[in-house]
Amino acid sequence: MRILVTGGAGFIGSHLVEQLLAGGYEVLILDDFNDFYDPKIKHGNIAGFAKEVTVHHVDLRDSESVRNLFHREKVDTIAHLAARAGVRPSIQEPRLYYDTNVTGTL
What is the per-residue pLDDT for 36? Predict the structure, then answer.
């Protein structure tokens, strides 16, 4: 089974990916590696299994790229964990957070 984990390079997502790989699943990661915290941390989160997964550096707000990814990769299931985090930044940039966390989900 092919599982796409959105936000798969984040803290929670990377732990889910690790468990899915241990369970024998084929895993793909979609993550935009945004700079809410240092992207090097996200790369570090997936370093231990990076060769076992396909990583797509895609922003959920780019609906055409997301749609193309779905058609190209033929995933069976999606674990949607991608989101912009942080209350204070969401107040400062509400549109960015809405576009990512709401529209990006749809």
Answer: 85
Average pLDDT over residues 40-58: 96
What are the structural domains, with CATH classification, of the chain? 2-103 (3.40.50.720)
Question: Within 13 Å of residue 24, how many CA atoms lie on the same side as its CB?
Answer: 0
Q: State yes or no: pLDDT of 62 exceeds 80.
A: yes
Rounded to whole angstroms, how far apart are CA atoms 52 and 38? 23
Helix (H) or strand (E) holding 79: strand 77-80
Using a 10 angstrom Cβ sphere, with 0-12 exposed, 13-18 middle and 19 or more buried, the burial of residue 87 is exposed
* pLDDT above 70 coverage of the chain, percent: 100
Q: Which two tokens stand for residue 71?
A: 């058609």
Q: What Å distances lie between residue 20 and 27, 35, 37, 64, 106, CA to CA?
A: 7, 26, 25, 27, 24
Q: Comparing C-alpha atoms, which of 54, 66, 52, 74 is closest to residue 100?
A: 66
